[in-house]
């Protein structure tokens, strides 16, 4: 027994020593409350702050004395009743949460205090690991030892995330209800308290039903804590949620996809994130707003359809804006960078460039009719046109690209040799290219960023550079530690590329109406552009450019399920509206012919010269 007593005494001494050491560490190891998860500041192309890990600078901050006591009490009642008595973590809350989760055999209740949640927001990620949870407790303990409760509560209320690019309960009040916190009724307050637990679920902009269910749960808690009278509780539960949206953030949080892409780019460049970084990006808020507004106008967040898009600057290959999905709150997965999908007929301009390089001209003809191709002794291939519509006569390359004729494309592909298109794709760094007949119809998979860089090479008159999100980076002393050098190389022949660019205006040329209708005739921008659309059973795309911008858009379902034909037009409309927003007063610019190129007025269907035809460009030496 004496031996057991000694062991217990030693164990108690060790625990006491560790506890005192932890408290000493928490008290004297200085913790900057508003500095730095990874200490990154990002700037847009105008030098304005795009993103900071310093929350207090990054958002509109509301002092605690400006947040009504009623609001503070309600938040504490729901999130952390013993906030003013615990030391950063709450053993009783943790035990209760563990017991409830054990009973329900699932995570139904969290044990984190407000201090822990704030610590996670400032310093940690959202990953669900034991190591992250232990770190969260240590950070919370340090906060409590070094700062008073009011500072912690103020920080927490200002860094709550509500989705849609909105941080802080005061900003959320303005965003959802166009009201100051002091003017909120009980129903509205309950809605705001409920959203941060799951913005992608409980935002009333996403699901009014889920938001109402969450609101009623919050009201029940407030009633149980005697913060609401019985009558007020009943009336608030009966009150319908009525929103009055005030767009605090014009891009609605869509810049977060760009921010994520910049952080990914930093990692790819092996730049340490454990140092102060001042990152000057290529992000253009006007371009992002143009793209985001177009997506919002044509994609319903309540439907399954997803979208990704890129706006890139020709001749520099700077990425000006991206959309990795229809709403970052719903999904942070960046489809623009990582989702590989079939590009369908948007591959055809690259095929026709290789044909122009091999001596074809815009007037080169093939017969458009149902055709079975003999690939080898055992293999045949019989592609079809959309809805089995054919010209049943010779058509020009102009007409083929205008109406996206698959038979013409396949004949070109096989005439040149299937390795020709494969080599062209490999030259752009497109991986996993399989040489087969269907390549000409766009069965190769790539991200919308990869497609955009091909089209930006067209827009850049054949010059090429890898796309970039970052212009340069400086350290805490102002020293440049990274700078992107724009050193475009010639990847495509200039004259053939210029001829192709003029050729790509055929897709909305009304004189191309023949056996079918030009594919972009129902989505013509207000400025002259080159463009091409594409559709498969599962994907829809549109891509195009002028010398100032390249815009590429994809839409489809994440599960690769068949795409309803009603959505085939969606990327075209987004593409059109983005260009229109980039040029609100029209104008724009176009390419100039070299001395080796002549223009001819031709009947675009036959490719023969015609005084009433349309203008296309030709190599002078071939005429």
UniProtKB/TrEMBL annotation:
Localization per Swiss-Prot or TrEMBL: Cell membrane
Keyword set includes NADP: no
Top-level taxon in the UniProt lineage: Bacteria
Main localization, broad class: membrane
Keyword Transmembrane: yes
Domain Glycosyl transferase family residues, every copy: 47-220
Keywords associated with the record: Carboxypeptidase, Cell membrane, Cell shape, Cell wall biogenesis/degradation, Glycosyltransferase, Hydrolase, Membrane, Multifunctional enzyme, Peptidoglycan synthesis, Protease, Transferase, Transmembrane, Transmembrane helix
Catalytically driven reaction(s): [GlcNAc-(1->4)-Mur2Ac(oyl-L-Ala-gamma-D-Glu-L-Lys-D-Ala-D-Ala)](n)-di-trans,octa-cis-undecaprenyl diphosphate + beta-D-GlcNAc-(1->4)-Mur2Ac(oyl-L-Ala-gamma-D-Glu-L-Lys-D-Ala-D-Ala)-di-trans,octa-cis-undecaprenyl diphosphate = [GlcNAc-(1->4)-Mur2Ac(oyl-L-Ala-gamma-D-Glu-L-Lys-D-Ala-D-Ala)](n+1)-di-trans,octa-cis-undecaprenyl diphosphate + di-trans,octa-cis-undecaprenyl diphosphate + H(+); Preferential cleavage: (Ac)2-L-Lys-D-Ala-|-D-Ala. Also transpeptidation of peptidyl-alanyl moieties that are N-acyl substituents of D-alanine
Transmembrane annotation, as ranges: 7-28
Domain called Penicillin-binding protein transpeptidase: residue spans: 308-538
Signal peptide: none
InterPro entries: Beta-lactam/transpept-like, Glyco_trans_51, Glycosyltr_51/Transpeptidase, Lysozyme-like_dom_sf, PBP_transglycosylase, PCN-bd_Tpept
Name of the protein this chain belongs to: Transglycosylase domain-containing protein
The organism of origin for this protein: Massilicoli timonensis
């Amino acid at each position: 027994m004496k031996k057991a007593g000694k062991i217990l005494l030693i164990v108690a001494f060790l625990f006491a020593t560790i506890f005192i050491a932890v408290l000493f560490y928490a008290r004297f190891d200085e913790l900057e409350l508003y500095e730095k998860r990874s200490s990154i500041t990002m700037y847009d192309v105008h030098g304005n702050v795009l993103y900071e890990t310093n929350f207090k600078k990054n958002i509109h901050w509301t002092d605690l004395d400006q947040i009504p006591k009623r609001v503070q009490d309600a938040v504490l009642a729901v999130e952390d009743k013993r906030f003013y008595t615990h030391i950063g973590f709450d053993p009783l809350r943790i035990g209760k949460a563990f017991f409830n989760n054990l009973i329900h055999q699932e995570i139904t209740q969290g044990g984190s205090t407000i201090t822990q949640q704030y610590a996670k927001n400032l310093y940690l990620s959202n990953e669900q690991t034991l190591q992250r949870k232990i770190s969260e407790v240590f950070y919370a303990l340090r906060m409590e030892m070094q700062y008073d409760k009011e500072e912690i509560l103020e920080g927490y209320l200002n860094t709550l995330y509500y989705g849609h690019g909105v941080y802080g309960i005061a900003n959320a009040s303005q965003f959802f209800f166009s009201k100051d916190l002091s003017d909120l009724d009980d129903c509205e307050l309950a809605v705001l308290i409920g959203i941060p637990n799951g913005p992608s679920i409980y935002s009333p902009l996403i699901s009014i039903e889920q938001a109402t269910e969450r609101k009623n749960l919050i009201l029940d808690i407030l009633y149980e804590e005697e913060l609401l009278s019985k009558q007020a509780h009943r009336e608030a539960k009966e009150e319908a949620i009525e929103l009055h949206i005030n767009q605090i953030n014009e891009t609605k949080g869509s810049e977060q996809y760009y921010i994520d892409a910049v952080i990914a780019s930093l990692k790819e460049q092996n730049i340490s994130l454990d140092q102060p970084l001042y990152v000057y990006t290529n992000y253009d808020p006007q371009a992002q707003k143009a793209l985001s507004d177009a997506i919002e106008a044509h994609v319903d967040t309540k439907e399954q359809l997803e979208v990704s898009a890129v706006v890139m600057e020709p001749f520099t290959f700077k990425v000006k804006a991206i959309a990795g999905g229809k709403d970052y709150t719903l999904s942070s997965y960046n489809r623009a960078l990582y989702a590989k999908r079939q590009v369908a007929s948007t591959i055809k301009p690259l095929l026709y460039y290789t044909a122009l390089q091999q001596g074809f001209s815009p007037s080169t003809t093939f017969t458009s009719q149902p055709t079975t191709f003999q690939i080898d002794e055992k293999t045949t291939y019989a592609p079809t046109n959309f809805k089995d519509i054919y010209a049943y006569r010779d058509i020009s390359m102009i007409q083929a690209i205008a109406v996206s004729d698959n038979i013409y494309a396949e004949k070109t592909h096989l005439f040149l040799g299937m390795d020709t298109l494969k080599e062209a794709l490999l030259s752009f760094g497109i991986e996993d290219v399989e040489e087969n007949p269907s390549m000409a119809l766009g069965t190769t998979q790539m991200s919308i960023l990869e497609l955009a860089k091909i089209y930006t090479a067209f827009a850049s008159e054949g010059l090429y550079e890898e796309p970039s999100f970052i212009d340069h980076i400086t350290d805490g002393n102002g020293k440049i530690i990274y700078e992107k050098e724009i050193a475009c190389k010639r990847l495509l022949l200039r004259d053939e590329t210029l001829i192709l660019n003029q050729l790509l205006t055929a897709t909305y040329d009304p004189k191309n109406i023949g056996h079918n209708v030009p594919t972009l005739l129902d989505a013509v921008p207000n400025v002259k552009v080159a463009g091409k659309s594409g559709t498969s059973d599962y994907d829809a795309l549109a891509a195009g450019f002028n010398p100032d911008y390249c815009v590429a858009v994809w839409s489809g379902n994440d599960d690769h399920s068949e795409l309803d034909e009603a959505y085939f037009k969606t990327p075209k409309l987004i593409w059109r509206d983005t260009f229109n927003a980039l040029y609100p007063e029209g104008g724009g610019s176009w390419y100039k012919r070299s001395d080796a190129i002549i223009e001819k007025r031709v009947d675009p269907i036959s490719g023969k010269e015609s005084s009433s035809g349309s203008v296309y460009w030709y190599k002078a030496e071939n005429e």
